[in-house]
Structures are given as C-alpha cells and as structure tokens.
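Quick start: what a row looks like.
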Amino acid sequence: QQYMEEQVASHRANVRTEGVDVGALLSKRRTSANEVRRARREQLVSAKRLRPMPAAAAAAPPPAEAGATAMIEDMEAAVPSDVDEAAASKAKELVAQLRNARSHPAALTVVDSLCRILSQCDTARTRAVECGAVPLLSDLLTTADPELQFKACWCLTNIAADSHTNAEAVLPVAPTLIALLSCSSPDLQEQAAWTLGNIAADSVQFRDVLRANGAGPGLIALLNSKTASIVKTAAFALINLVRGPNPRVGEFYSDAVPPLLVRHLTSPESSDASIEVAWLISYLTASGGKFVPRFVECGCVPAIVAILSQTTALELTLPSLRVLGNFVCQSDAITDVIVGDHRTMPALKSLLNSSSRALKKECAWVLSNIAAGTDAHVDAIVAAGMVDDLVQLLGRSQFDIRKEVGYTLSHIATVHRHLSLLVDRGAVTCFCDLLRASSSDNEAPLVALHFLEQVLTHHPSGVRIVEEAGGIEAMETLQVHTNPELYSPASAIIDKFYSDYSEGDLTGDEEGGMQT
C-alpha cells in the first residue's frame, strides 16, 4: 500500500476527482493489483522445465549398459506404479555403475542411460539423488569430454526440475554451471542455462545464491547468441531469476540489454525465442525504473504494437500486451508515443473483443492506464470507437473484467465532453449494477461511485438519470457496509443530491446537475 501511494504521489498528484476520494484508485495502476498480476504471470510462464528425451532417441536408444535397454522395454509394458518403481530401481543401479566407471566411454554409456531414466518420472530422480548421483554428475562437468559434460548436465537439469529437495541438491553445482555459460560448446551453454533456470525457479533463497555467484551477467551474455534456442533458454533462466515480489531487476540493467532483446523480438532468426523474450521484457519493465525509457528509445514500442496488430497467438500476444501496459504506466510522454502509433488503438479494440478472457482483462487494464493520462489520450480511446465495446463489457462480462473496464470508463467520464456519450450508451445502468455486485470488493464500488458522481455533477439531467437507473437503491446498499471508505462517500452523495427530493420530484427534466 505504501509503495502504491508513493507511485501515485510521484506520478499524478492532480488526479481528476471530486467528492469521492479515489485518487489512489484512478491514477495509473502499475502496482494496484501488482501481486495478483505477478502471480498470474508466473502461472503462465512455466517455472521449471524438464528436458525429455527426443522421440527418436526414446524409440531407438543408443547402446547402453547390459540390461538398461531391456529395463526400459520392461517399463514400457508395466503398469504406471510399476514403471515408477522400476525406474527408481534402475536409477539406483545406474548411479552405482557410474560410481564404479573407470573410463569416460564407460561413464558416458551409464550417464546416457541415466539421462533417459531421469526424463521419465520423479521417483527415479528422487532415488538418484538419494543414492548420491549429484556429486558424481558434478564431477563429470569438469571433464574434457563435451558429450559427457552435456549428458551429465542434462541429468542435473531434470533433477533440478523436480522437488525443492532435489533442486537443493543441485544448488552446490551452481558455480560450475555458471562457468559453463561461457564455455566453447553451445549445447553445453544452453543446458547449463536450463539447469540454472530450474534452480532459480525454486525459491528466493536459491535465486540469491545464483545472483551472488554471478549467474545474471553470464545469462545476459548468452542473449548475444545467434542461436535462437540459446536465447530462448537464457531468457527462460533470467525470467526465473527475477521472479517473486522483490525482483531487483535493476541489478541486471545495462544500456545494451534492451536493444538486444528488441532485436530478438523482431528478428525472424529469433522467432522461436520471441515468447520468452517478450515475457522477459515484461518482467524487466514491470517495476518501471531505467529499463522502460531505454526500451522505448531503442524501438520497443513499434515492435510490440506490430505484434499486437499482426499476431493472433495468445502465447505471444499476452506478454506483449503486458509490456505495453508497463510502458503506459511510466509517463504521459511514453503514452504519447504509444497512442501516436496509428496501429495501437485498432489493435487494442480488436483485443478488447477477443474470445480470450485473459486478453480482454489485460487490454482493459492497458486502456484504463491510457485513459488515466491526458485528455488527448482519452480522446484517442473514444475516437477509436471503443466506448460501445467497453459499456457492453461493463454490463455483461465476468466481475474482474467489469472492474477493469469500470476504471477505464471512469477515467473517460472525467473528460466531461464525453459524458453524454457514456450516458447515452447505457453506462449509468451498468455502473449501478456494478455497485450491487461489489459487496465483497472494496475498489469497484469506489470506481462506480466516482462515475455516478461525475454524471450527477456534470450532466444536465444527471440526478434524474441516476435515480431512474436505480442508483439511489444501489448506493443505499453501501450505507450498511462495514467499510467506512465505502459507506461514507455513498451517504455523502445521497445527502448531497437527493436529500431535498421525494420520489415524485425526479420525473421531469427540469432539474440541473449539481444540487445546492
């Protein structure tokens, strides 16, 4: 709450409000739902990732220790519970063989079999850790055999993708893994980054250890790679490194990072990495700071708008929309750049009518922050023909979308030349309905009250319109609310505009807006 108030004070001290005290609600809301938005984002971006064996390799495994291939064939014919136990038993056997391997070729044969077993079930991974696989695999990372290093790292990747206990077992290997980020083998670089990403996803404590050992600079250096899969994996690992409520993204700031990521976002050669790159940009810009203006300087706005205009894939559109929202939260000057791109408003209008609930809600959040800016920004939303879409969503969508849309329309209402349009489109009735549906929410009622107060004060027939829409009864429901921040403004509005009127007094058009 304190952080939100500081953001409000620093960004917009003169929020356009009147009787209802909604300054903190109706300013640009980078942090108003920060925890919820962060949690939702982290659910969408897979935290830990197993690396399975390729289908071809699984169908025709390379030569293995005597009995390993037969064991896999037996597992394929077994019931699931037997598969788990068979895999665990084989993992234990292979760890013992690895401990006794006397040559690199022998070790490679064992590790290859172990790699396939660990790709199949968590029981095998846990058993391997219990039997001491991690120190043995760690030692193999320092050999001169790149293939053996790679397969050992692959095993560690899948162990780290498992439980907290297993990830903790791999944590001491972090310095070696970080050193491998700068090795000469691209495959090994990528696998080391993947393992570090899985460790980072586990906990704040593990992230702190990785940061202290220099994982951040090593992963950022991999973003210079011309191999899309390496860029993708490095971005995945960096996303996990800046997860959580205290991402400390400033530690990774460099003037070179934003243009590098924008290049990957727009380059056909990096198309396979674009989703992870877009999510990484959304993480780096979520808290504002130096990253946002630097991304804007190096052309990120047109790149993001192009994606929103041309891409239908939810996986890429959603993080791109999040990035745009982060930019809008920064300043009116940056919003000028965004609104000034002729493709932005048509793209947002299209997304507002998307079949995806997530996109609708995200788009409404972006629009609410655009509308929190200058009158020209509000005019752009209206000129794009979005008022009808917004009012329809306010009246018919799920509550969380209605609340986001309510913010947008409340902002638009503060530019009073648009008030009649909102009233004519039926927004008053929708806001009265939102009041009635907001018994368990503390923000939506204040937003609705703010809108109704705008109508009551500035529309020539506002008092009658609100009364006929059921506004008095809707506001009266808040007078018995336990939260004084809700019942006090509701009571004040009723006293101010309706204290001198009986039910029959509100049938004509002769009354003005504000009552004295």
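That is the whole record. Residues 41 and 477 are 35 Å apart (CA to CA). The mean pLDDT is 85.
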